[in-house]
Every structure is written in structure tokens, then in C-alpha cells.
Specification:
By secondary structure, the chain is mainly β. It contains no helices and nine strands. It is about 0% helix and about 45% strand. A four-stranded antiparallel β-sheet has the order 3-2-5-6, with no helix packed on it. It has a three-stranded mixed β-sheet with strand order 4-1-9, with no helix packed on it.
Length: about 100
């Protein structure tokens, strides 16, 4: 497989919650670090606190969420592909992450 994932994309999704476990809307969620290249964009959480975006390279990413009031949180998530023999082409797997604002 090439370093760019061979044209595949790997979905990353999750939720941003407050300290009480309630969803937080309007949080900008972006990749703070990863094996790159990764998109220099932010996804905004919806009313349910959920977000999603895709990356093109397997590896471990640091996902960071920043709320309008300055609260932030980050977590690591592993993105990759799995192949099930005899399937010759690995299937991209989705990665999920939960961010808790302090």
C-alpha cells in the first residue's frame, strides 16, 4: 500500500461532550497531529455533539476540539484498514473518538 493510502479514505467520527456527559454543539474539531498529510480544516459539531471527517493516511491522529468559550480537549485515535482473508484488499475501518471538554 502506498503512503497516501492508495486513494482510500478513512472515516473519523465522534462526539464532543461536556464534563457532565452532555453533547456540545458548535465545537470546532480538527486534527492537531498525525502521520499526514491531513486536512487543514475543522468540522463543527451538530446539536448532538457529533462530528465526522476523513483522512487519507493510516496511523495515529490527535483530534482536538475547541469550543467558542475556549474550552478544549484532545484525544488520540488510530485509523487503519483491515483485511479478512481471503479478501485481497483491506477494507477501510471507521475510527471513533470521544472528546470531553473540561
Amino acid at each position: 500500500m502506498s503512503a497516501d493510502g492508495g486513494g482510500r479514505t478513512y472515516p473519523v467520527s465522534g462526539a464532543v461532550l461536556d464534563a457532565h456527559g452532555d453533547p456540545v454543539s458548535g465545537v470546532a474539531v480538527a486534527i492537531a497531529d498525525g502521520p499526514g498529510p491531513f486536512p487543514d480544516i475543522a468540522a463543527l459539531t451538530g446539536a448532538d455533539g457529533r462530528f465526522s471527517f476523513s483522512v487519507s493516511t493510516e496511523g495515529v491522529y490527535t483530534v482536538q476540539g475547541t469550543a467558542a468559550d475556549g474550552r478544549s480537549a484532545q484525544a488520540s485515535v488510530e485509523v487503519g484498514a483491515r483485511g479478512t482473508p481471503p479478501t485481497p484488499t483491506p477494507t477501510p475501518t471507521s475510527a471513533s473518538v470521544e472528546l470531553r471538554l473540561g
